Amino acid sequence: MNAPISLKTVTLHDVAKAAGVSLITASRALSNPGVVSEKTRARVQQAVEATGYIPNLLAGGLKSKRSLMVAGIVPALSVSQFLPTLEALSTALAAEGYQLILGQTAYDPDREEAVLNTMISRQPDGIVMTGLVQSPRAQERLRRSGIPVVETWDLSDRPVDMVVGFSHLKVGGAVAGYFLSKGWQKVGVATGGDSRAMQRREGFVATMGREVPTAVVPAPSSLALGRRALAELLEKEPGLKAVCCSSDTLASGVLVEALARGLRIPQDLAVCGFGDADFSAHTVPSITTVHVDGPGIGTLAARMILARCRGERPAQPIVDLGFRLVERASTA
Amino acid sequence: MNAPISLKTVTLHDVAKAAGVSLITASRALSNPGVVSEKTRARVQQAVEATGYIPNLLAGGLKSKRSLMVAGIVPALSVSQFLPTLEALSTALAAEGYQLILGQTAYDPDREEAVLNTMISRQPDGIVMTGLVQSPRAQERLRRSGIPVVETWDLSDRPVDMVVGFSHLKVGGAVAGYFLSKGWQKVGVATGGDSRAMQRREGFVATMGREVPTAVVPAPSSLALGRRALAELLEKEPGLKAVCCSSDTLASGVLVEALARGLRIPQDLAVCGFGDADFSAHTVPSITTVHVDGPGIGTLAARMILARCRGERPAQPIVDLGFRLVERASTA
DNA sequence: CTGTTAGCGCTTTCAT
DNA sequence: ATGAAAGCGCTAACAG
């Protein structure tokens, strides 16, 4: 039963010939089996096996206007914050026969625009952005393209199309409120420089009611940058009592640096992160953080895109998934 | 609130008409500018702007047999080990106009086969696997497809096509050799259950010259699993002196659990990881590990695929990038 | 340098 | 339930 080594690619035409049916019947047997007779279906199926046929989705997509691809855009793959979202998105899409094409913007609006143009060229059936679309020209182009777009990990009154996320301002406010309830006065912020992290800082400052010492570190955040940020903050504010970090990764660095300096946590210094990373509950001390449903965002984004592909109107184009402050040992 | 939605999509035909040239001239002006006159090129360019034309790569790819897409296959996006490779791969490809389509196998050969079939359907110009192709049927299918394939993060005498990585057996052996040189007798292994991690364990055991207590944890590895693994090992081997971990994430968990139990590192317990994660040099104590050039693997894989797309034969279809043991505080 | 002629492999009409 | 025709939007060939 060794299959013939076919140098020439096997097309549907070959399958049809092998099955003794017309091209279009073979096509239907594969993509719409309910509409052909049981016998024909079986014959075609057998011909597929015999020839080793693999469909050409490029050709199908050209005619049917469905590429079965969805573009997923992130600042960078190394921003681990978005991985659970991407993973859930990819899994949910794959279950329906859709594949994810990846794009990286490097937090640069120009690159974002370029990436989106390239993506549109590939006729994806949907586009999922982590974060809002920055460039106004890109927004315009996306609207014109008619492609379903879901912006995620943020909220907007006027999304390009749909948005699922939460308010970063409120997150910052919630952490500040928590700090205030603890009576901590000498507080600082260790944050990445991206717009969402800066918005959380803004919310924090607003609720605190005054400016606070801040260390801004470049993306992507890392344990090492967390250490450096704490060092910077302690210089600015020697008696620092609590730090609000823009990620758990940064928070873990703050933890390490604090321990290295002999500071006890939380007695000498309280630390709060963001994102509820997989390690945060298991470090010693465990990290107080803001939990966000990353996989939920990805799954919901997939559902919204797929519904739109089926021609359904979204019940809700703007979805606020909220967040939850998780109190752990680093502040308790 | 609705922008002027162009209902009909702008095609190259429209651009050509607007520029007053033939369809094919417009095509050339965009994809092969050197071959048309400067004046024509400018006219077409202007028509592109005026019409808001975005090329349809699906259509172009169908005819030209170049989809400008490369498939990247990982066990799961959450396996952070492969992220630097994926990121570098995507970046290197994007620089040449190629995009990455993502596939996840969940460490399952059946899913691997399914994912690869789906990918082949999309006519990618190359396929990059993290790890070797497991399923023999998938191997066969890939060979038949004629698509350039690079397997990574491992080595093989008989790759499907090309391979760039290193020997996991040798990694295990190197760590064991290091442990032996330190005179540690009561040693253990904390490892993920995937085939590459198990191969490193094999290499470790072979060089040690005897079986060693082992805790196997499910993928993906995490700090929490590292803690659990150390607990398990300490039960199996109460006087444990050194642990070889299959990832730095696991090692960081072992560190935390050891500290929680009042064990001093490295005096009471030495710990070695694998992968040289970004945090490993900055924890306290810093983690001894095996460094692998993840981005290098991705960049090289991209280069090999792109060279093949240009019709070049690869100078070396099998590339051993090696590894490097990095001694840090957790064993020194 | 530019244009004409043919398709790429498949799926949508429309017919039977 | 099946088939024939007609392209999807673009580019490789060959002309001119």
TrEMBL record, chains A, B:
HTH lacI-type domain mapped to chain residues: 10-64
Keyword DNA-binding attached: yes
A molecular function (GO) term: DNA binding
Protein name per the record: LacI family DNA-binding transcriptional regulator
Cross-referenced SUPFAM superfamilies: lambda repressor-like DNA-binding domains (SSF47413), Periplasmic binding protein-like I (SSF53822)
InterPro entries: HTH_LacI, LacI/GalR-like_sensor, Lambda_DNA-bd_dom_sf, Peripla_BP_I
Keywords for the protein's UniProt record, in alphabetical order: DNA-binding, Transcription, Transcription regulation
Domain of life: Bacteria
